[in-house]
Amino acid sequence: METKPTADGHPVIDPRQFRNVLGQFCTGITVITAFGDDAAPIGFACQSFAALSLDPPLVLFCPTKASRSWAAIEKTGRFCVNILAEEQQQLCARFGSREPDKFAGTSWHTSELKLPVLDDALATIQCTVDSVVDGGDHYIVIGRVQVLSESTDSDRPLLFYRGQYTAIEPEKTVPAPWRADLDHFLTTTTLDTWL
Ligand SMILES: Cc1cc2nc3c(=O)[nH]c(=O)nc-3n(C[C@H](O)[C@H](O)[C@H](O)COP(=O)(O)O)c2cc1C
């Protein structure tokens, strides 16, 4: 469908089409946590998480500018990324809501870096805030990795696809062609390699 451009010359993008098209990109889900001013744990479900850089080790996530959790997290200058496992749908729904006590009924502990860490997460990444970039109606928060940890259980990740929770079908999981080189990829940064 053809539409008139915006005043500054860009094409008008229909929000529903934007959501539908971007919803085709399947992601994992994280819960970003920190302690608030009153020492109570805070957090929110966050799909927009990505690895950014190996050297230095950086990750990113994108909170909406309306996020109360981010406003509180920004003040502390540190956060923990908790990568959710397949069976954590209910936990995800709670952290994706505006409930006042999102941690009720959730098992968590305080790390040495003084961050709330969810006990049953697939993996956790504790970071300090490196920089914050404007991203339209969101921010792009870049975090410097301080502590990494992963579950010893062979749990699978919770996935988000076209607005719904889903999971990996194990029988459809196959090694990528470059698997033999994975170690090299993960430990070497050159201009033509990617994490
Ligand atoms: C699966 C899922 C993914 C989400 N991803 C994001 C995200 O990437 N960025 C964001 O700002 N909010 C995201 N949200 C919404 C926030 O979790 C929600 O708006 C937030 O919990 C509101 O509470 P707050 O004001 O305490 O931040 C997501 C929610 C769900 C359920």
Automatic annotation (TrEMBL):
<protein>
    <submittedName>
        <fullName>3-hydroxy-9,10-secoandrosta-1,3,5(10)-triene-9, 17-dione monooxygenase reductase subunit</fullName>
        <ecNumber>1.5.1.36</ecNumber>
    </submittedName>
</protein>
<dbReference type="GO" id="GO:0036382">
    <property type="term" value="F:flavin reductase (NADH) activity"/>
</dbReference>
<dbReference type="InterPro" id="IPR054682">
    <property type="entry name" value="HsaB"/>
</dbReference>
<dbReference type="InterPro" id="IPR050268">
    <property type="entry name" value="NADH-dep_flavin_reductase"/>
</dbReference>
<keyword id="KW-0503">Monooxygenase</keyword>
<comment type="similarity">
    <text>Belongs to the non-flavoprotein flavin reductase family.</text>
</comment>
<feature type="domain" description="Flavin reductase like">
    <location>
        <begin position="22"/>
        <end position="167"/>
    </location>
</feature>
<dbReference type="Pfam" id="PF01613">
    <property type="entry name" value="Flavin_Reduct"/>
</dbReference>
<dbReference type="GO" id="GO:0004497">
    <property type="term" value="F:monooxygenase activity"/>
</dbReference>
<dbReference type="InterPro" id="IPR002563">
    <property type="entry name" value="Flavin_Rdtase-like_dom"/>
</dbReference>
<dbReference type="InterPro" id="IPR012349">
    <property type="entry name" value="Split_barrel_FMN-bd"/>
</dbReference>
<keyword id="KW-0560">Oxidoreductase</keyword>
